[in-house]
Write a structure and sequence with these properties.
The chain contains one helix and no strands. It has 53 residues and is mostly helical. It has one domain. The longest helix has 46 residues. The chain is rod-shaped, with a radius of gyration of 22 Å. The termini are far apart.
């Protein structure tokens, strides 16, 4: 019973290890994308006169 648990956790570790580079890239890009998006939204709101800067 413990062998199955150990084997599946080892397999899970390999899966996580393979997914980690993409997760790091995603985590690094998300704040950048959010900031760019908000900058665009604010620029549009200023341009149409809804928000004063």
């Amino acid at each position: 019973m413990n062998d199955q648990g150990g084997g599946s956790s080892a397999k899970c570790w390999v899966c996580r290890k393979e997914a980690r580079p993409q997760e790091l890239i995603t985590a690094a890009i998300n704040p950048f994308v959010a900031r760019v998006y908000m900058t665009i939204v604010i620029t549009i709101l200023i341009a149409i006169g809804v928000l004063k800067h």
